[in-house]
Design brief:
Length: 445
C-alpha cells in the first residue's frame, strides 16, 4: 500500500491479509481528493423528493445548479420538487447581506406556487456573511401560514453525511404536527427510499399484498401532510441507514416508534425485509401472505436468473457506493449471479457497518473507506476487475480503465429494488460485462 497516503492507514485493508477492521467515520484527509460531496448536497438530496414542497436555495446560483434534479426520484402527483429555485446571491449581497432578497423570493414563490411547505437551504456563503435565515423563515411562516423550515447546511461544516443529519432534523420539525391521517395497527414508515425509477411503488405493492399500510415515505414520492403524520406509524423501516438512521433514532426517542434496518436490493434482503416486518407485527395472516408472496416471486425469478449466472460465472466486480448497507446487498446480489466482489468500498460507512461488509466478502477482497480516483484506479488494476459499480463520479474511472460500469447511484433511471429489480440488475451486469466493445479497448490494467 505504499502508493497510498500514509495517514489513511486503517481505511484500506485486504481481507485475509490484514488483521484489523476497516475504520469508518473519519473526516476526509486534506489533499486526498475524496469522492464525498458537501453538507449542502447531503441535505438537498434527502429532502429533494418531497414533491409538494418548495425547495429554495439561499446562495449563489452554482449551488442550485449543482444539486438540481440529481436524483432519479419520481412523483405520482405534484412536480414542484423538479424545479430548482435560488436567491442567486452576488457580490453586493455578500457585502450588504441577503436577508431582504431571501424574504422577497420566499414570499413571492409561496404566493405564486402554493406549496404545502418550504425548505430554505443555507449554503457556504450564507454561513460566512451571517444572514439570519431562521428569523426570515419564521416571519414568512407566520405570514403565509405554512411550515417554512430552514436547513442550515453550509457546505464547509463537514461532508455529505453531516448533511443527512441536518436533513433529518429538518424533517423532525414537520413530524408530529398533524393527526388527521388514519393509521392501521399494521402501519410502517419507509425511511431512506427515494423512489428512484419508481422503486417505491413496487415496495408499496408488496406491503399492500401482505396487509401492511405504508403511512409515510421519507422521502421518495413524499407529501408534506404524510410526513406531518409520520409519528402515528407503529414501525420505522430504514432502507438507507446512512441517510435516515438519525431520524429513526429521533422518532424512537420522542414518539417511542421502534425501527429496523432493511435492504430492498437482491433476493435475500428483499425477502428478509418482508419477513422481518411480518415478524414484528406478530400476525399469522401477515406472515402467511409474506411467505406466499416470496414463494411466488422466487419461483419466477430464480429460473430467469440462471442464464445470466452461467454466462457471468468467474467475473470480478469492484464496488464503491455511498453507504455500507448498499455495498453489503451488492456483494450478495453479485454472488447470486456468479460474480465475485474483489473491491468493496463506501463514502459514508462506519466501523460497525464495515465489520458486516468484511464478514460477507471473500478473502483477497480490498475494503476501503472514503476512497479517491487514484486509489480506486490502482485497486482495479491490481485485482483485474471486469466491472465497476458506483455513481456518476466513478463512471470515468471505469471507462478510462477499459472496463464496464453499472450505475447504482441516485441518478439512475432503472429500478433495481425488489424481485424485478434483481432481474433488471442481472440484465444490466450481463449487457455491460459481456459487451463486445471491450475487445477493442486497449488493455491498461
Amino acid at each position: 500500500m505504499v502508493k497510498f497516503l500514509q495517514d489513511r492507514e486503517g481505511q484500506i485493508i485486504t481481507k485475509g491479509k490484514d488483521s484489523g477492521d476497516l475504520i469508518g467515520g473519519r473526516p476526509s484527509l486534506a489533499g486526498s481528493v475524496s469522492q464525498r460531496a458537501c453538507v449542502f448536497c447531503g441535505s438537498r438530496v434527502v429532502l429533494y423528493p418531497i414533491a409538494d414542497a418548495l425547495h429554495l436555495i439561499h446562495g449563489p446560483i452554482g449551488c442550485a445548479s449543482y444539486t438540481w434534479d440529481i436524483r432519479g426520484s419520481l412523483s405520482s402527483g405534484p412536480q414542484l420538487y423538479r424545479s430548482s429555485y435560488s436567491t442567486d446571491l452576488r457580490e453586493q449581497h455578500v457585502i450588504f447581506g441577503g436577508e431582504k432578497r431571501l424574504y422577497k423570493a420566499l414570499s413571492d414563490l409561496i404566493t405564486e406556487l402554493h406549496p404545502k411547505a418550504a425548505f430554505v437551504y443555507s449554503t457556504c456563503i450564507v454561513g460566512v456573511i451571517g444572514d439570519d435565515v431562521e428569523s426570515v423563515c419564521k416571519k414568512v411562516q407566520a405570514e403565509k401560514n405554512i411550515p417554512v423550515i430552514p436547513v442550515m447546511a453550509e457546505g464547509f461544516q463537514g461532508s455529505k453525511k453531516d448533511g443527512y443529519k441536518i436533513a433529518c432534523e429538518a424533517l423532525a420539525r414537520l413530524i408530529g404536527t398533524d393527526d388527521s391521517k388514519e393509521a392501521s395497527p399494521y402501519s410502517i414508515n419507509i425511511l431512506g427510499d427515494f423512489n428512484l425509477a419508481g422503486e417505491l411503488w413496487t415496495l408499496q405493492d408488496y406491503y399492500s399484498r401482505i396487509g401492511v399500510q405504508i403511512m409515510t415515505t421519507l422521502t421518495g414520492d413524499g407529501r408534506v401532510k404524510d410526513i406531518r403524520n409520520a409519528h402515528r406509524a407503529k414501525l420505522n423501516v430504514v432502507q438507507c441507514s446512512g441517510s435516515m438512521i438519525y431520524l429513526a433514532k429521533l422518532m424512537k426517542e420522542k414518539y417511542g416508534i421502534p425501527y429496523m434496518k432493511v435492504s430492498y436490493f437482491g433476493i435475500e434482503d428483499m425477502s428478509d425485509a418482508l419477513y422481518d416486518v411480518a415478524k414484528f407485527f406478530k400476525n399469522d395472516e401477515i406472515m402467511e401472505k409474506a411467505r406466499r408472496l416470496v414463494t411466488s416471486e422466487l419461483s419466477r425469478l430464480v429460473p430467469a436468473l440462471a442464464p445470466y449466472k452461467k454466462a457471468l460465472e468467474g467475473k470480478k466486480a469492484a464496488i464503491y457506493v455511498g453507504g455500507a448497507f448498499k455495498a453489503i446487498s451488492l456483494v450478495k446480489a453479485l454472488r447470486l449471479i456468479g460474480v465475485k466482489t474483489v473491491i468493496a468500498g463506501t463514502q459514508t460507512g462506519n466501523t460497525e457497518d464495515y465489520k458486516l461488509l468484511k464478514a460477507i466478502c471473500d478473502d483477497g477482497c480490498i475494503l476501503v473507506d472514503d476512497s479517491n480516483p487514484v486509489e480506486l484506479s490502482e485497486f482495479v488494476k491490481r485485482t483485474g476487475a471486469d466491472l465497476f459499480i458506483g455513481g456518476v463520479k466513478e463512471r470515468p474511472i471505469a471507462h478510462k480503465l477499459g472496463i464496464g460500469f453499472v450505475d447504482h447511484n441516485h441518478e439512475r433511471k432503472h429500478a433495481l429494488s425488489g424481485y424485478n429489480g434483481m432481474l433488471n440488475f442481472a440484465k444490466e451486469v450481463y449487457a455491460t460485462v459481456m459487451s463486445p466493445v471491450w475487445r477493442f479497448v486497449r488493455d491498461v490494467k
